[in-house]
Amino acid sequence: MNTPDCPLCAGAGGDVVWRGARARVVLAEEPQFPGFTRVIWDEHRAEMTDLPAAERAGVMALVWCVEQTQRELLRPDKINLASLGNVVAHLHWHVIPRWRDDSHFPAPVWSLAQRDGGARMTMSKPLVARYRAALAERLEALVKT
């Protein structure tokens, strides 16, 4: 069941890296925060507890796969995981690599900037391509296990 006025029901929610039977993983269109990735449940649900336990575990396995891939390939100083949904009440997780020199660190990416963006603001295209390819491959392998 989808809701027509929900942006995550009506659109992809970013640049689709991988699509499974019940969820998708996208790169967010957040140029100040390279590697910002979302795990989005396809059906319109507001909360994790709207899903049966096995599906909740499946969503979190996707989130952890994204986090691990970011840690290994992007090597951030920290990774933020968030499932806010205050603006868009559609089940989705934000997986956000953070660097000490990013514009908002140590505050959340949704807060006011602390400084001009640092060195990580512009991630090289080859690194983004490697992250994207590795993430898609790992997610595909995860759902086959």
Structure description:
It is built from 3 helices and 5 strands, in the order αβββαββα. With 145 residues, the protein is of the alpha+beta class. The protein has one domain: HIT-like (HIT family, subunit A, 2-Layer Sandwich), CATH 3.30.428. The protein has a 5-stranded antiparallel sheet, covered by helices on one side. It is globular, with a radius of gyration of 15 Å. 28% of the residues are buried.
Keywords:
5 strands; 145 residues; alpha+beta; 19% strand; globular; 31% helix; single chain; 5-stranded antiparallel β-sheet; HIT family, subunit A
Overall radius of gyration: 15 Å
Mean pLDDT: 91
In CATH, the topology is named: HIT family, subunit A
Order of helices and strands: HEEEHEEH
Strand order of the largest sheet: 1-2-3-5-4
CATH class: Alpha Beta
CATH architecture descriptor:
2-Layer Sandwich
CATH homology-level superfamily: HIT-like
- What is the 3D form? globular
User: What is the number of helices?
Assistant: 3
What is the secondary structure topology, with strand pairs?
Blueprint lengths: L6 H4 L4 E5 L3 E5 L9 E5 L11 H21 L4 E5 L9 E7 L26 H20 L1
Antiparallel strand pairs: 1-2, 2-3, 3-5, 4-5
Helix pairs in contact: 2-3
Summarize it.
This protein has 3 helices and 5 strands.
